[in-house]
Amino acid sequence: MLWHDGALHESGMLTLAAGDRGLLLADGLFETVLVVAGRPWRLADHLARLKRSAAAIGMPIDARPEEAILALSAYAAASRELTGLAAIRVTVTRGAGPRGLKLPPHPSPSVFATLAPWQPAMAFQPVRLHLTAIRRNEFSPLSRIKSLSYLDNVLALEDAVRHGCDDALLMNTSGAVAATSAGNVFALFGEALVTPPIEDGVLPGITRQVVLAAATEAGLAVREQSLTVAALETADAAFATNSLRLLCPITALDGGDIRRDARTIALMEALRADIQADCGIDPFAEPAKASQFL
């Protein structure tokens, strides 16, 4: 299902101007939003990040992303097949412009959004990581926004798959851990939960934000500090987070096992509680859905 120009389109086909800068130059942004019970989880946070990201690249933003997310969420709520569960991606490009790199003086952004099925079994799954040679540039503003320029992440994931792993671990240009191909990284050391700081080339993830708050409430000492690969390998536990997979235990790095710690389950439970508080139900409430991590 596609939202464009204020309406839903079942065909999923979209017409863009041949000069659209999102198509030609990856000049644009996106957000991915989890929908539960027909309600977008942490919508205000996603919209706020999108607004900050647009400001960072000098692109105007209007109310259409919110309109698109709400329209697709309502569709998911009414759909017998989706039963209120879905993943929405909203994309904003700078729109069409003259040939060349120079920013158009009066951009007219294009906005569209797509909806895909989401199931609870997609979340909380363990992952095996491969340390890719592809680096994340912590000096680039794109490292801190959800830019359409995502090919590094695509190639990193492909590299991991070729090595028999589920996802890639990316370092930044200084050799510090930055992220997976699509998520933030955390490591547990004793009573401290460590995650790389934003300045290390890290996206300020929405789920990252929820986990940091939950960890503090659980009595863990939360530290945003640079993390080495060697430290990650010796952690009491490690995991990755994003808005659809939520919290995924990292069980191995290039074949070397990483320990697991029952305290990560408390953070998973906190995510469940946060989704229930925001969306009205816990999609993992049925035993068959919760057994994957309990």
Automatic annotation (TrEMBL):
Gene Ontology CC entries for this record: cytosol
Molecular function terms from GO: branched-chain-amino-acid transaminase activity
CDD domains: PLPDE_IV
Catalytic activity: L-isoleucine + 2-oxoglutarate = (S)-3-methyl-2-oxopentanoate + L-glutamate; L-leucine + 2-oxoglutarate = 4-methyl-2-oxopentanoate + L-glutamate; L-valine + 2-oxoglutarate = 3-methyl-2-oxobutanoate + L-glutamate
Keyword terms of this UniProt record: Amino-acid biosynthesis, Aminotransferase, Branched-chain amino acid biosynthesis, Pyridoxal phosphate, Transferase
Cofactor(s) needed by this chain: pyridoxal 5'-phosphate
Superkingdom to which the source organism belongs: Bacteria
EC assignment: 2.6.1.42
Keyword Ligase in annotation: no
Pathway, per record: Amino-acid biosynthesis; L-leucine biosynthesis; L-leucine from 3-methyl-2-oxobutanoate: step 4/4; Amino-acid biosynthesis; L-valine biosynthesis; L-valine from pyruvate: step 4/4; Amino-acid biosynthesis; L-isoleucine biosynthesis; L-isoleucine from 2-oxobutanoate: step 4/4
Any Gene Ontology biological process: branched-chain amino acid biosynthetic process
Keyword Amino-acid biosynthesis listed: yes
The protein's role, per its UniProt record: Acts on leucine, isoleucine and valine.
Entry's family note: Belongs to the class-IV pyridoxal-phosphate-dependent aminotransferase family.
Protein name listed in UniProt: Probable branched-chain-amino-acid aminotransferase
